[in-house]
Amino acid sequence: MLYAVTMDVAIPHDLDPEVAASTIATEKAYSQELQRSGEWRHIWRIAGQYSNLSIFDVESNERLHEILWGLPLFKYMTVKVQPLATHPSDIALLGGADGGGQASQAG
Amino acid sequence: MLYAVTMDVAIPHDLDPEVAASTIATEKAYSQELQRSGEWRHIWRIAGQYSNLSIFDVESNERLHEILWGLPLFKYMTVKVQPLATHPSDIALLGGADGGGQASQAG
Amino acid sequence: MLYAVTMDVAIPHDLDPEVAASTIATEKAYSQELQRSGEWRHIWRIAGQYSNLSIFDVESNERLHEILWGLPLFKYMTVKVQPLATHPSDIALLGGADGGGQASQAG
Amino acid sequence: MLYAVTMDVAIPHDLDPEVAASTIATEKAYSQELQRSGEWRHIWRIAGQYSNLSIFDVESNERLHEILWGLPLFKYMTVKVQPLATHPSDIALLGGADGGGQASQAG
Amino acid sequence: MLYAVTMDVAIPHDLDPEVAASTIATEKAYSQELQRSGEWRHIWRIAGQYSNLSIFDVESNERLHEILWGLPLFKYMTVKVQPLATHPSDIALLGGADGGGQASQAG
Amino acid sequence: MLYAVTMDVAIPHDLDPEVAASTIATEKAYSQELQRSGEWRHIWRIAGQYSNLSIFDVESNERLHEILWGLPLFKYMTVKVQPLATHPSDIALLGGADGGGQASQAG
Amino acid sequence: MLYAVTMDVAIPHDLDPEVAASTIATEKAYSQELQRSGEWRHIWRIAGQYSNLSIFDVESNERLHEILWGLPLFKYMTVKVQPLATHPSDIALLGGADGGGQASQAG
Amino acid sequence: MLYAVTMDVAIPHDLDPEVAASTIATEKAYSQELQRSGEWRHIWRIAGQYSNLSIFDVESNERLHEILWGLPLFKYMTVKVQPLATHPSDIALLGGADGGGQASQAG
Amino acid sequence: MLYAVTMDVAIPHDLDPEVAASTIATEKAYSQELQRSGEWRHIWRIAGQYSNLSIFDVESNERLHEILWGLPLFKYMTVKVQPLATHPSDIALLGGADGGGQASQAG
Amino acid sequence: MLYAVTMDVAIPHDLDPEVAASTIATEKAYSQELQRSGEWRHIWRIAGQYSNLSIFDVESNERLHEILWGLPLFKYMTVKVQPLATHPSDIALLGGADGGGQASQAG
Q1: d(CA I66, CA F83)
Q2: Is residue E78 less than 8 Å (CB to CB) from chain G?
Q3: Structurally, what CATH architecture does the domain formed by H2-86 represent?
Q4: H or E element: which one contains F41?
């Protein structure tokens, strides 16, 4: 089950630099482990922002929350969650058939 | 080069139903052709909305604009564009090396 | 899996009154069928608004979208979706044990 | 009488960790006592947020304010209150009769 | 039980003038009847706006919704509802006693 | 001359508790003196918020500003001011006559 | 007593051109009459907008509302009202004295 | 050339009181000098706010920026700038002629 | 004197297509004439939007307003104006000297 | 490839003045080097703001992000990025030909 998640990071300017550095290092390892397990499907930097756009593929809302709550930088983030569904225009829906029956949801 | 694009569709309630239906059908074909060519990499429905989140992979801002401007439903859409860059935590950056040198941009 | 959904309804003032009336009647039947099946767990009117706050219990984002997209009044609604998870303070988590181990997520 | 209440929590990053921990523990006990008494009917975590959506069932605006003002984390919260009323499509309104007379408020 | 309600009115410019005029006349009678019954305690025009700020004194959220939903101009209004409680600085709380015990909620 | 004023209070969490307490006590006395003089006609707590909605009856904008600027908690408040006028539906306008001549401003 | 008023005008594109033209002409005469009487002290066009910023000098909130409500274009306007007071840095406050006693309100 | 400028002041609560006081005193002198020179034409307090609305009459955008950037309180201000133009309804445009030729821009 | 202007265009979907086409053609000619005269220095399409970002170089606010007001599409536009000034980091300020004296305004 | 970037700077008032000064000096040098290389095509101060509007001409989203992320003041900035495309009314498109074929995108 897919979710688009946007994370905007704002580390307080008066945070101890060592705490900041170690939190950021832990964040990277945490993210990469979930990418390897397949639950964190995509992560992109939004150009010009200390933000990322990520796609998660998890079994439930519970699991999504567990992952996000556990982010080492969570307390410095503003997070936006959008649950996703299949789009009727997605060519992945097309097998041998033409998919023409779902035109009413295009856009 | 990647871009995240959100399209919110609002078809006027007094639009001629035949015009609406044929525009939606054209939209679907237009999207699928670009998916097949590889420029429209992902399209997801945002659950509960007449909106999609899409990822485009195009050569330039010019080409992105050309594609979006040409959308049959463009005049009924509110479009948001976010240029994307590689995220330093992306495991795709990891080859045989450890990637540890870029921890400073995690999050 | 639970979702909070807010639906704000704005029926165009120049919509044919008969179309409006029959759409509203269909909406009611549609909602009640889903309440009976258990997927539409709660529906409340937000006082002073043509809006409702609803709680859905469905198996996936796909199913949630299917239900909302099918609402007879969907085209006249602004819909907000919030995926929900268990709250660590929820007394439903307390069996014979004391639940004290999860205090860190309270609030 | 029902109210939907959304609480967004933002604990200052420079708050003494012991103060934070004890406040969070007190918050949990406070919430659970009110859940047991029946006034705090539901509490859900909003996935990906340090926020909850709660349903209160209290006798008056006065009582609602007293409860919210007394929350140990109140000073770190942004609170949104929505008074609720019965929705005409709610199947709880249906006894042996068909409830068809209130279709005009559906949606 | 008190509620502050703000009503912003926007009558569509293409509404039949006779329908508009009769709806406005009905609105006035409706409001005045509720003022006489004591439920609509105050109504003020917000200077420079087609808006009013009103104070309602009703027995429940249900009753408040019933009144607002029944407003002849309801479909042309944007309505904001704020449930009210007694303020600890209100001198109405002062009888023979000094009221000093509630200073912590002033402001 | 009437004004509706909303005051949202946000006391910095790191303010000296004694300073906070004494400021709050002074605020209460200041408010009650103006209530007794008749200039601060109403003060209500907005349920669930550290906010109040107040009605002032003063001779001028100058006087209103002088009162608000002098609030002991002013520096911690976000203040919203709305000048008020008589509403044409107000039954206070009705003497022996019917008031029917002002229907055009109802709502 | 002074007020700053911003008026944003949005004439519906499908309004009868003759109605629009005569309303605009009436608006101009209405404004000029009030400028001559001294109540409408300043009117400036906000560059690039169909908007004006005006300063009114009237005896009360009631009179301000009466003027604004009577604007021929009122129904097509979004109006913002800000009551004004004397600024402590205003040199008009300086007579033979130095005015230094009010420095605490500068800014 | 005229500009409307709104300045909202927010002095940090933990700023050294002596620094605050001397900055405010300097601000007042700075403003009064520019009022005397004719560049700062009007300054009004917005009632109930630590804000002013000012009208500047300067030769260029460069000069406006130089003045605002030099404000002693600039670093604590949120500033909004609106360039102004002559309004076609302004009676200052009326000499012996009737000015009727510009009715199309009224409002 | 420079101004950044953003124009968002929203042509009503029910506008006569011939009127729309001829207005758009006139708009293009109007823009190009001003580009040739040097007052409309830059015009860029904002990718994915029916919007442009333009830089104007005109002698005054009056002239800027005259140009914008005269845009054939003005009535269908939302316009945002930002007056510009020289930036202290601009290398155009550097002649033979080093420009180091203005470092305090960088950013 | 062009991008419009707006940077709003907010240096924390309690930042060490020497750190602030050296960061600002580094920012200036960084900007000027990129202006000389041709990637930072324009930089303007937005009048009355600690903000700039800049035009970048870079080869990709990646390069844009690299530049912005490397800004010495980045951590104190709110950045807005808008990818730009050629506007069909741009006279730079006109060679010997008339450019008339693209009128449909004007505005």
Answers
A1: 35
A2: no
A3: 2-Layer Sandwich (3.30)
A4: strand F40-46
- The answer to whether A68 faces chain D, any CB pair under 8 Å, is yes
On chain C, the residues whose CB falls within 8 A of the CB of B52 are: none
Q: What is the DSSP string of G50-83?
A: SEEEEEEE-S-HHHHHHHHHT-TTGGGEEEEEEE
Rounded mean pLDDT, J60-82: 98
B95 secondary structure, DSSP code = S
Residue D2 near chain C (CB below 8 Å): yes
Distance CA I10, CA I8 (A): 7
Residues 6+ apart with CB under 8 A from F44: E2, E4, E84, E85, E86, E87, E90, F52, F53, F54
Residue of C nearest to A104 (CA): C69
In the block, tokens 């790191």 appear at F14
If you write DSSP's letter for every residue of A33-47 in order, what string do you get? HHHHHTSEEEEEEET
D71 near D82, Cβ under 8 Å? no
Number of H helices, E strands in chain C: 2, 4
B105 to chain J: nearest residue by CA? J69
Neighbours of B79 (CB within 10 A): 19
| Chain J and chain I touch, per 3+ beta carbon pairs within 8 A | yes
Is domain I2-98 given the CATH code 3.40.50.10420 in the classification? no
> What percentage of chain A has pLDDT greater than the value 90?
86
Burial of G78 (0-12, 13-18, 19+ CB in 10 A): exposed
Amino acid occupying residue I61: N
**How does DSSP assign J39-59, residue by residue?**
SEEEEEEETTSSEEEEEEE-S
Count of pairs with CB atoms under 8 A, one residue in A, one in B? 127
Place of tokens 């105050």: E42
CATH topology of domain F2-87: Alpha-Beta Plaits (3.30.70)
Domain C2-85 has CATH 3.30.70.1060: yes
H66-92 as b/e, with b when 16 or more CB fall inside 10 Å? Answer: ebbbebbbbebbebebbbbbbbbbbee
Q: How confident is the model at residue J107 (pLDDT cuts 50, 70, 90)?
A: confident
Q: pLDDT tens, position by position, for chain B (107 residues)?
A: 999 999 999 999 989 999 999 999 999 999 999 999 999 999 999 999 999 999 999 999 999 999 999 999 999 999 999 999 999 999 999 975 444 444 456 88
- State the smallest CA–CA distance between residue E86 and chain D in angstroms: 7
Closest C-alpha among E93, E43, D81, F88 to residue G69: F88
User: What sign does the dihedral E28-E31-E37-E42 (CA atoms) show?
Assistant: negative
J81–I contact, CB cutoff 8 A:
no
J-facing residues of A in 9-48 (CB < 8 A) are 11, 13-14, 45, 47-48
Task: Assign a CATH topology to domain A2-84.
Answer: Alpha-Beta Plaits (3.30.70)
d(CA F36, CA F29): 11
Q: What is the DSSP letter of A15?
A: S
